[in-house]
């Protein structure tokens, strides 16, 4: 206790900064967008293990009332956003690099660019859809809501069902594309990704749909687990993910369809893939944080909308609570 008091006295920074919440107002779209531009910043995946660990220690000690001597407010917020970009908000575990939201732009620009480039043959469609859905499965698991882990068997079953369902959907849509104009067939990967997201995300988060996710009061006190909240969170995530795919998979095909008619593209067809990947990346830099910002990560729901048994437990344990909060995931 004496050591903590000394540390508090030596720190120049106030202990009143609420780093449990984002720096910007999350009740507005612009506030959420500013928050996610930092969380999804691709440069975060380049941070070393030492930098991540230093950010974790800084954030966790500050939450305990211990301030590193000389720490400024900007340095504290920088540490918080480095921490948020790499550690799960509920479990506190470090996420695998490709599962972090900061990996979305570089990973998706590569995978999506290849999906849009190599879409003409069935083996290419199967391979790139499998790569895409495997990547999505890692992201969906890494950014799940709640703190209960899946067993190895549950995780394997979820992965197989999610990727298989998504790839089969993509193949079905590809067969329909044969009867469409060439420019329309370019949009098949987008429709496949949209449909696959509706399959992959619920499968990878199926434990939440079975057992529910933690719901809390405004102070963060855990009140129970809710399947209703899980369904709401997953629907919001599906909408956000499809929104991310719209610019990246709808705009480049139109541009590429026009570019491929130009003499220089006919002379240098090898440019097709890198140009497509670059266009996708440009779209994703903005689409990723803006679509993450469509809904607050800390979502809310009226107690009256929860399951009856949970309503009764909350009425008994916290009678004045009318709204619960939960992490919807990303």
TrEMBL record:
Compartmental location: Mitochondrion membrane
Domain of life: Eukaryota
Gene Ontology cellular component annotations, sorted alphabetically: mitochondrial inner membrane
Swiss-Prot/TrEMBL catalytic activity: L-serine(in) = L-serine(out)
Biological processes per GO annotation: serine import into mitochondrion
Organism listed in the record: Hucho hucho
Membrane topology classification: Multi-pass membrane protein
Subcellular location, principal: mitochondrion
Keywords, sorted A to Z: Amino-acid transport, Membrane, Mitochondrion, Transmembrane, Transmembrane helix, Transport
Sequence similarity: Belongs to the sideroflexin family.
NCBIfam families membership: mtc (TIGR00798)
Keyword Transmembrane helix belongs to the record: yes
Keyword Transmembrane set for record: yes
Task of the protein: Mitochondrial serine transporter that mediates transport of serine into mitochondria, an important step of the one-carbon metabolism pathway. Mitochondrial serine is converted to glycine and formate, which then exits to the cytosol where it is used to generate the charged folates that serve as one-carbon donors.
Taxonomic lineage from the root: Eukaryota, Metazoa, Chordata, Craniata, Vertebrata
Protein name, entry field: Sidoreflexin
Segments passing through the bilayer: 156-177, 234-255, 275-295
Gene Ontology MF terms: monoatomic ion transmembrane transporter activity
């Amino acid at each position: 206790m004496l050591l903590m008091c000394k540390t508090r006295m030596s720190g120049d920074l106030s202990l009143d900064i609420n780093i449990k919440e984002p720096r910007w107002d999350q009740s507005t779209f612009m506030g959420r967008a500013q928050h996610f531009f930092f969380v999804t910043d691709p440069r975060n995946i380049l941070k070393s293990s030492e930098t991540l660990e230093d950010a974790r220690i800084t954030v966790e000690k500050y939450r305990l009332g211990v301030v590193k001597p000389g720490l400024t407010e900007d340095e504290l917020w920088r540490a918080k956003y480095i921490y948020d970009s790499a550690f799960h908000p509920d479990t506190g575990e470090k996420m695998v690099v490709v599962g972090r939201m900061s990996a979305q732009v570089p990973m998706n620009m590569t995978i999506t660019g290849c999906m849009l480039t190599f879409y003409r043959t069935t083996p290419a469609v199967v391979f790139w859809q499998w790569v895409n859905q495997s990547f999505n499965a890692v992201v969906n698991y890494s950014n799940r809501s709640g703190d209960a882990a899946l067993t190895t068997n549950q995780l394997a079953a979820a992965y197989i069902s999610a990727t298989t369902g998504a790839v089969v959907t993509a193949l079905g849509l590809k067969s329909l594309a044969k009867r469409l104009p060439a420019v329309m067939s370019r949009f098949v990967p987008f429709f496949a990704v949209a449909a696959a997201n509706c399959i992959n995300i619920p499968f990878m988060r199926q434990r939440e749909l079975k057992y529910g996710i933690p719901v809390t009061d405004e102070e963060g006190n855990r009140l129970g687990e809710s399947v209703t909240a899980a369904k709401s969170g997953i629907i919001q995530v599906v909408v956000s993910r499809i929104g991310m795919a719209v610019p990246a998979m709808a705009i480049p095909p139109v541009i590429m369809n026009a570019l491929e008619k130009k003499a220089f593209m006919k002379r240098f067809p090898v440019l097709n893939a890198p140009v497509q990947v670059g266009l996708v990346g440009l779209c994703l830099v903005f689409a990723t944080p803006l679509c993450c910002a469509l809904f607050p990560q800390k979502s809310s729901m009226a107690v009256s909308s929860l399951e009856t048994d949970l309503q009764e437990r909350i009425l008994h344990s916290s009678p004045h609570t009318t709204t619960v909060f939960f992490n919807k995931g990303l």
